[in-house]
Design goal:
alpha/beta, 8-stranded mixed beta sheet, 8 strands, globular, binds adenosine-5'-diphosphate, binds magnesium ion, AAA_dom, DNA_Partitioning_ATPase, P-loop_NTPase, Chromosome partitioning protein
Length: about 260
């Protein structure tokens, strides 16, 4: 199983949308996909109609030693399963102070599910938290959706610093890739930000930026009516996925200092 963390320490940059669309495109290629909602806000889960209260089985249970097989649920989309967010995830931060080893809980759960899926996509929270650290410790690739707006570069920089920290502690480099999102080719800001993204050391930038597309605005319809998926946005995700797959065996870049 390949494990991709979809992460950025900024909200609203297209993490959840990217997780949903890449999952759909991977499933269309015949892959078995597991989506893991690591954001206590649970937008990915809500898109599939799963509410965090009352708590379903889900991500929190993985931190109590439950297996992915016992908490993953069907999504209505063939070949995509979901580990849903639970409100109790918010309490994990407190527990991590007293319970060593919690940083690898997700890693352990995914290792045990290795034969059940071809891909796991981890939809990360926008905060530097135990859940994000778990994702970075478990993944072999970090995909950073980055809005093509100068303000979004701070989130990217924070994310790259966190990645470097986790890489050092686990003694292994990640493949780090930027997926430019919310791209408006008519604006100079979008162009300039894209150029700037290409100057960051230790990351590669997807040459297929994801354009603004109103059809990508509604996560619930992406999740529940994938047959209606068409248009520039999803086509760009298909191209981006192709690029991600082609670079699948890329060696991790030299980590940035
Ligand atoms: P994050 O998970 O990083 O917080 P989301 O994926 O939830 O970000 O996206 C933030 C908002 O932007 C959502 O309302 C989403 O529907 C919208 N959105 C994301 N990508 C696009 C896009 N390419 N075009 C138009 N709207 C988008
Ligand atoms: Mg999100």
């Amino acid at each position: 199983m390949r494990i991709w963390a979809i992460a950025n320490q900024k909200g609203g940059v297209g993490k959840t949308t990217s997780a949903l669309c890449l999952a759909r495109c991977l499933a269309d290629l015949g892959h078995r996909v597991l989506l893991v909602d690591l954001d206590p806000h649970g937008s990915l889960s809500r898109a599939f109609g799963v509410a965090a209260e009352p708590p379903p089985k889900g991500t929190f249970d993985l931190f109590n030693g439950e297996s992915i097989a016992s908490v993953a649920r069907a999504t209505g989309q063939a070949d995509i399963q979901l580990v849903a967010a639970q409100a109790a995830m918010a309490t994990l931060e407190r527990r991590s102070a007293t319970q060593p080893g919690l940083g690898l809980a997700l890693h352990r759960a995914l290792v045990n599910a290795d034969a059940d899926y071809d891909f796991a996509l981890l939809d990360c929270p926008p905060t530097l938290s135990l859940l994000l650290v778990n994702a970075l410790a478990a993944c072999d690739r970090l995909v950073v959706p980055t809005q093509t707006d100068p303000l979004a570069l701070h989130g990217l920089e924070g994310m790259l610093r966190t990645a470097a920290m986790v890489e050092r502690s686990r003694g292994r480099a990640l493949v780090r890739q930027i997926l430019p999102t919310l791209y408006d080719r008519r604006t100079r800001t979008s162009h300039e930000t894209l150029e700037q993204l290409n100057t960051y050391p230790g990351v590669s930038v997807c040459p297929w930026p994801i354009p603004m597309d109103t059809r990508l605005r509604d996560a619930a319809s992406l999740a529940t009516q994938p047959r209606h998926l068409a248009g520039r946005g999803i086509n760009a995700y298909r191209d981006a996925l192709q690029w991600l797959l082609e670079t699948a065996d890329a060696r991790p870049q030299e980590a940035a200092a």
